[in-house]
Amino acid sequence: MAVKTGKQYTDSLRKIKRNSYILGQKVDDIVDHPINRPAVNAIAESYEIANINDMKAFAAPSSKLCNGPVNRYNALSESVDDMLSRGEMERTVGYRTAVGCPRSTGYDAINAVYSIAYEVDQKYKTPYLERFTRWLKRVQENDLAISGAMTDVKGDREKRPSQQADPDMYLHIVERKPAGVVVRGAKAHQTGAVNCHEHLVMPTRGMNEAEKDYAICFSVPVDAPGLYHIYGRQPSDTRKLESGGSIDVGNSRFGGCETLMVFDDVFVPWEQVYICGENEYTWPLVNRFAIGHRASYGLAGGGVGDVAIGLVVAMAEANGVAHDKIIWDKIADLIICCQTLYGLGLSAMLKGKPTTSGIYFPDYVLGGVAKYNATTLPFQMLRITQDICGGLVATMPGEVDLRHEVIGKYIEKYLRGAAQVPTEHRMRLVRLIECMSLGPLSADLLTMGLHGAGSPYAQKMMILGDYAERIPGLRDLALYHAGIRDKIS
Question: Is the model's pLDDT at 330 over the cut of 80?
Answer without folding.
Answer: yes
